[in-house]
Specification:
Strand order of the largest sheet: 3-9-8-7-6-4-5
Strand content: 5-15%
Helix content: 25-40%
Largest sheet: 7 strands, mixed
Number of strands: 12
Radius of gyration: 22 Å
Length: 413
C-alpha cells in the first residue's frame, strides 16, 4: 500500500498503515494485524487513546454530523453555537493571563500568524497611532513592493535545536534538522543556544546554572546586536521542552529570566506548546511549571488539543479586519472533540496522573541507565515527556529494533 500511496501523494515517512477499527487505548494495530504499544500516539496528537468511547459518542451526535457535512468559513459565517463551543473548549483551559484565543489550522500556521501579530504590534508601538495620510500612503505602497517602511526589517529570535514549523516564517525560526530547511530561502534571524544540561541534575547544579546563564547572556547580546544593525528583535519564541531537537529541558528559573529579558528588551514572548501542551508534562500547559509573574504574550497549541491556534493577550491582538484571516479558522467539529477530551482529562484527573506516571517512568529510565551505563544516559523528563540518550546510533537502532519486536512502537522521524 505504501508504494501505491507514493504514486499519488507524499508518503516517504510512512512506516505502516493503521487499522483504526482495531486500535484501542494506547495500542495501535497495523494493516497486518500487528499490535503495538504506541509510545508517541500519532506524533503526540492522540490525547486520550484510540477509540475512546466518549469521543466516539460525541462523533455520533447530530450537531457533529451537521458540522462535518457543512464546514463553515468561521472567519465570516460561524454557526450559531460557535461562541459556546469556544468557551466550553478552548477557553475552559486558557492559560492564566491569556484571555483571547484565535483558532488556526495547524501548529505551523499558529506560530506563523503569531509572528505576524508580533510584527504588527511592534510596528504600531513604535510608529504610534497618529499616522498622516501621506505616511499611510507610503506604508501601503511600499509594502506592496515588499519594501520598507511598509515591509520592515524585523526579526524573531529562536533557539538552537528548536522546531516551530515548516511554513516560511516558522521555518526561518526552526533550527532542529537541516533536511527541513535545505534549499528553502529563509529570513536572516538570530538564534541563541538552548541550555545543554548535565544529568543527574542534583549532581550538576552549579554547572547547569552557569550554562543557563551563558545562554541568557548570548540571547541578550543577540537582541542588542540585531537592534543595533537595524533588524530589531520583535519577538522571542521558545518551547518548554525541545522535542524534535532532542528532548532538551531547562529549569523554571531559566524561563523566568528569559521572560524578564523579553520585557526589558521590549520584545514579545512566545511559548510554543504544540508538542508539550495538554497534560503530558504533569501540567495542562507545560509553562505552568515556571510560575511566571507575567504570562507569555502568546502561547501556541495544536496536536493533542485536536485544533490548533494561539492564546494571546488583548493588547497584542490586531483590531483591523483582514490582518489575521483564513477561510476555516479552525474546525467546529474538532472543537467539539476537544471539549470532550478536556472534560475527560478533568474528570479523570489525568494531569495529576500524568505527573505520577511520569515519576514511575523516569525512575525506570534512571534504573536502566544505572544498570547499563555504557548503553544509555541522561534520563530526564517532565511528567510522561521523558527521554534517555543512547551511546551511539548503532545502540539506538538496536534498541528501537527490539522494541518493535516486543510491540512497543517508536515512530522514527
Amino acid at each position: 500500500m505504501t508504494g501505491e500511496l507514493r504514486e499519488l501523494v507524499t508518503g516517504e515517512d510512512i512506516p505502516f498503515f493503521v487499522d483504526l477499527e482495531k486500535c484501542f487505548g494506547n495500542y495501535v494495530v497495523d494493516a497486518d494485524g500487528n499490535r503495538f504499544l504506541d509510545l508517541f500516539c500519532q506524533i503526540s496528537s492522540i490525547p486520550i487513546g484510540y477509540n475512546h468511547p466518549e469521543l466516539i459518542a460525541a462523533a455520533r451526535r447530530n450537531d457533529m454530523v451537521l458540522n462535518l457535512a457543512n464546514r463553515t468559513a468561521l472567519g465570516r459565517h460561524p454557526p450559531i453555537g460557535y461562541v459556546r463551543e469556544v468557551r466550553d473548549s478552548l477557553m475552559s483551559v486558557a492559560p492564566k493571563g491569556l484571555t483571547n484565543v484565535t483558532p488556526m489550522m495547524c501548529g505551523s500556521c499558529a506560530n506563523e500568524n503569531v509572528f505576524k501579530c508580533v510584527f504588527i504590534w511592534y510596528q504600531k508601538k513604535h510608529r504610534g497611532v497618529d499616522v498622516s495620510a501621506e505616511e499611510l500612503e507610503e506604508l501601503n505602497s511600499s509594502c506592496m513592493k515588499n519594501q520598507a517602511p511598509g515591509s520592515p526589517d524585523l526579526s524573531i529570535l529562536s533557539f538552537e535545536g528548536c522546531f516551530h514549523g515548516r511554513t516560511m516564517g516558522t521555518l526561518s525560526a526552526t533550527r532542529s534538522r537541516a533536511i527541513h530547511k535545505l534549499d528553502v530561502p529563509a529570513f536572516q534571524w538570530p538564534v541563541a543556544p538552548f541550555p545543554k544540561l548535565k544529568y543527574p541534575l542534583d549532581l550538576h547544579a552549579d554547572e547547569n546554572r552557569h550554562e543557563e546563564q551563558r545562554c541568557l547572556e548570548v540571547a541578550r547580546s543577540l537582541i542588542a546586536e540585531w537592534n543595533a544593525k537595524g533588524s530589531p528583535v520583535a519577538g522571542v519564541i521558545i518551547e518548554p521542552v525541545q522535542g524534535e531537537g532532542g528532548d532538551n529541558h531547562a529549569s523554571p528559573e531559566f524561563f523566568r529570566e528569559l521572560r524578564q529579558l523579553t520585557k526589558d528588551a521590549g520584545a514579545a514572548f512566545i511559548v510554543d506548546e504544540v508538542q508539550t501542551g495538554v497534560a503530558t508534562t504533569g501540567h495542562f500547559w507545560a509553562h505552568e511549571a515556571w510560575n511566571l509573574d507575567d504570562a507569555p504574550d502568546f502561547m501556541t497549541f495544536a496536536k493533542k488539543m485536536q485544533v490548533s491556534g494561539y492564546y494571546v493577550k488583548p493588547e497584542f491582538r490586531p483590531t483591523e479586519a483582514g490582518r489575521i484571516f483564513n477561510t476555516w479558522f479552525g474546525d467546529v467539529a474538532r472543537l467539539a472533540i476537544a471539549k470532550e477530551v478536556i472534560e475527560v482529562i478533568k474528570r479523570e484527573n489525568l494531569v495529576n496522573k500524568a505527573a505520577d506516571t511520569g515519576k514511575v517512568l523516569l525512575d525506570g529510565l534512571q534504573l536502566l541507565q544505572d544498570t547499563f551505563p555504557d548503553k544509555v544516559s541522561r534520563a530526564r523528563g517532565a511528567g510522561t515527556f521523558c527521554a534517555i540518550d543512547c551511546a551511539d546510533v548503532a545502540t539506538r537502532a538496536k534498541i528501537i529494533g527490539e522494541l518493535w519486536k516486543l510491540g512497543k512502537l517508536r515512530v522514527q522521524r
